[in-house]
Amino acid sequence: MIEKLNLTMLTDFYEITMANGYYEAGMTDDIAYFDVFFRQIPDGGGFVIMAGLEQAVKYLDSLKFTDEDIEYLRSKESFDERFLEYLKSFEFKCDVWAVPEGTPVFPGEPLVTVRGPVIQAQFVETMLLLQINHQSLIATKANRIVRAAKGRGIMEFGTRRAHGVSAAVYGARAAYIGGCIGTACAIADRDYGVAALGTMAHSWVQMFDSEYDAFRKYAEIYPDNCVLLVDTYNVLKSGVPAAIKVFKELKPAKMGVRIDSGDVSYLTKKARRMLDDAGLQDCSIVVSNALDEYIIEDVINEGACIDSFGVGERLITAKSEPVFGGVYKLSALEKNGVVTPKIKISENVEKITNPGFKSVYRLFDNDSGHAVADVITLDEEPVPAGDNYEIFDPQAVWKRKKISNFYAENLRKEIFKGGRLVYDLPSIEDIRDNCRRQVSALWDEMLRFENPQTYYVDLSHKLWHLKHRLIEELNK
């Protein structure tokens, strides 16, 4: 598995230069708080699916500098020898909180919070962002595609188009969390239990003298699950007729045809009629080839007869918006038990950070079970409650609303305590179920691909006042 590699040095070089600087400045034992969050939802969507936490946890749980790492750093002639000795005995001692995988999340919310010695808390920035950014991006894209299919199965078929080994494997994992039924990536099945699915390539058909011979041999070898690729030569004139002949002769327990090119709306309608006329109503039709949520939505609206889709490069690379902009920002410092909130300000309003050690609560309507709003609070504040709890838009404070008949859930879970893992990593099936359940708690208006309803993410009064007091102090 990829996690077995020692990835301690998979970091930006400035993490090491800053660590050395903190050491020489006598700040080794200073406590820092950092938040992982994002500012914009990819594809103009309504929400993001949190993913990648398991790989982040395994990285944090195995942090160790090897002799080779130390020798490499020594060769740079940039680091204090005492600092290198410190790294030799490096042991992760931070506290970590995070939102569980599969949870819909929104801009500005702290997805992961790291509290601990500043050298350690700063050093893990790159890998946390790498894991959370990539898998959250793919899980979100997969969920959009799955929702477009309206109950039809989506198979992740993008392994050979992924941006490298880990992108293929972790992308398949993330796609399954987002709702895909399986993947073409065999190692993702071996290591994560994501069902490996697939039929044949065009080369299989070309190896035989005729499509009929190719299909018959395949059906003989795989009588329990026989899906035949029918577009090597001509879908309607040769591919589907040959498949029908084989199916009627050998009667596989499960049968289907796959179309990988052409006008799928037209071809699937014609193929469905041919299969039904032959008495093969149970034969499924699978379509692949450069699909995304918009194409899938369009062909379904056109009446295409499709039972499942294989989606490749536009899913595994999130082609329409392939960068997820999660960031890692300092939110507080702690000395002698006193926490001092920190803020980054900017002329760009969305880049102004939320200071302090925070929690994030999701408020659910007691009657419908739907999510009403999220509220980011300072961690010391009580759980949101009451019959007239007031929420407001932090960018337009005159937009206020009082809500009643709700309950609040803290989205964050404690993951590490003093460097000790205290969180039971859920199975991928539990994560996938969590995603399905939590997305179903969102209002339909948020599920639109075009102009989805904006979800309320509010700040508590106390956090809002702290943020604006710090802004005013820094602008004096």
Q: Key features?
A:
single chain, about 475 residues, alpha/beta, nicotinate phosphoribosyltransferase, TIM Barrel, 2 domains, seven-stranded antiparallel beta sheet, six-stranded parallel beta sheet, 16 helices
Structure commentary:
The chain has 476 residues and is α/β, with parallel strands linked by helices. The protein has two domains: 2-138 and 322-474, Alpha-Beta Barrel (nicotinate phosphoribosyltransferase), CATH 3.20.140; 198-289, Aldolase class I (TIM Barrel), CATH 3.20.20.70. It is built from 16 helices and 21 strands. It has helices at residues 13-24, 53-60, 67-75, 81-88, 118-123, 125-148, 165-178, 186-192, 202-206, 211-221, 235-250, 264-277, 293-301, 313-316, 428-440, 461-474, and strands at 31-37, 48-49, 95-98, 104-105, 112-117, 153-156, 182-183, 226-229, 255-259, 284-287, 308-311, 327-335, 338-341, 358-365, 371-378, 389-393, 396-403, 406-410, 413-417, 420-421, 457-459. It is globular, with a radius of gyration of 26 Å. The N and C termini lie far apart (53 Å). The mean pLDDT is 96.
